[in-house]
User: Fold these one by one.
Assistant:
Number 1:
Amino acid sequence: MSRGQVLRRPDGLPSWFEPLLTRVDQCRTEDFTPLRQPAGGAGRASAVLVLLGESEPAADTPGGPDLLVLQRAATMRNHAGQPAFPGGATDPEDRDATDTALREAEEEVGLDRRSAEVLALLPDLWIPVSRFVVTPVLGWWRHPHQVHPLQPAEVAHVARLPISELADPANRIRVRHPSGWIGPAFQVRGLLVWGFTAGVISVLLDMAGWAQPWEPGRVVELPDASAPVPAARGGAPDEVVP
């Protein structure tokens, strides 16, 4: 079992971020998943970047906090077409989970790591299907810039999903895996976000106080019967995202 850890609270941090940081500093692995890493440290280290920015009001959005996600290419052998956080396995040259998450985001979508500030580490999460131990790295996108898929064979699409739309009860559903597993999901801007990524988002919405009451009655069958069972609780042409 591991715990969340706030690393810094920089000047200029938006007021909407503080409630989440306060809760992250007290969270534990079981807040996200009932699964525990096997004794002996089994599992390959990896990290994902949970990057929150703030959009200006526009015709299709009221502005406010948003979350950077990417969509895996449909041709990938694993997680084909599935939305996810930027991230991947730790390389020997990586100094820590923060370095892994930022490097992967740089390689996958062209994130300038100087534009983002890492604020906290979420608890390590065990993914038994792939035998990965994933550290979600929580960051603030202080200076958002254009990003786009840099590896078309792996990344098909990049999006900034408004928190207001993720929290909207009309966009929240549950999905059923062919194995019988049922978990939370989001239908936002043409993307079906489910599995590990949706589980983490769902918990963070609750922690930050952004979640709205919703009725988890509707269940949608997953279109990809070969998709692996998620571990987290609750577990197109290239596009430039400004």
Number 2:
Amino acid sequence: MNFTLFQFQIQNFYRKLIDSTWRLSLLGFVLSICLIFLSGCGGTAQKKDSVIHLTLWQSINPPANRDVFEKLVDKFNQNHTDVQVESIFIGQPQLPKILTAVVGNAPPDILLYDPQTTGQFAELGAIRPLEDWLDKLPLKSEIISNLFEELQLNGHIWSVPLYTANLGIFYRPKLFQAAGITQTPKTWKELRQAAKKLTIDRNGDNRPEQYGILLPLGKQEWTVFSWFPFLLSAGGEVLTDNTPNLMTKAAINALQFWQDLIRDGSATLSPPERGYEEDAFISGRVAMQITGPWTYIMKSNVDYGVFPIPVNIEPTTVTATGVVHVMKTTPAREQAALKFLEYVVSVEFQKEWSMETGFLPVNIKAGQSEAFEQFISKKPVLKMFMEQMSVARTRPIIPGYSRLSDSLGRAIEAALLGESPQKALKAAQEHLELIWDNK
């Protein structure tokens, strides 16, 4: 995508949009202007000659992956005489555009988006629950089981997964060899030791030409996403009974570990809100980077390998999943949309999508197919990510996720810039307690 580098920059905008009264008034004004535009954008399906025409909004990046998706949509259209799907790319800021369409009663029929926004859409009554349909579908048993954590909220299934992946740590084998490191780190202690060995100040000016690892500076979702595997590996959560609880031993330990890497001098920070960029890794300025199989690193000419997120208490990582929602429209249009969702989770779709994009198949049979096994045998990096799926977990699926993420991101950024983890998390917790009940 680059995993979408996806929808992360709109989280803070959405929080402000919802929390501020005058911005709600502004939204009403914007709606009056935008609805004229939206009504002509294909937001409503038209039925002509017994064919139902549906609109699908997506924000797939990079364009090469978008081309793969468009080709697969074309295949669906060629094989269905009663339903035709039009795929429409929506650029930034994505969430405000979606909310404007929903409030203006001009939504798309199908939406491909981030599962962490499911709670917001469900509260608005914008999406259709899918369990009645999915429970009758034989394909349900073929979907990777631990992905259902991202699909469910309040006893309902709200989406199906189109793609998935998870985070690992990419590394430069030649730099490891030069530093005398013969094994990839398996624990936090080993990761810290390796980062120190890989940090090199050749001219003694206290500004290393090579750092052990890159950490993402910023308060937006990419930073939270990248830190989450360390929280999970420390045995942590950020919710207790669906209420934020950031002042836990695990959260403090995970944030302290990142701060220790900075204090050791063996980690460098990315430019603000650009922790997903790989330039420093590809140039050799950093030896390790937290990212996933969507990365451009795999298409570059540099030497690289990947290893699982090192363990503190338990092995784990965090999923990077894109899900498909059926928006509430009319029964006929919703039923037509379900045909496309069935296609999305099919072996046919998942094999082609995964082999051409680098994402992992959400369909178990697709991952076990001869074609995919031959494909992955030539890409051992993908095999590691496939194996990690068994321990992969998700970020919270709750209506207030954007507020939680925003506060947590601010705490992570503060700690990376020198604030004590306890103080940073306490400030974030106190802020959340003031706003959490005012949803």
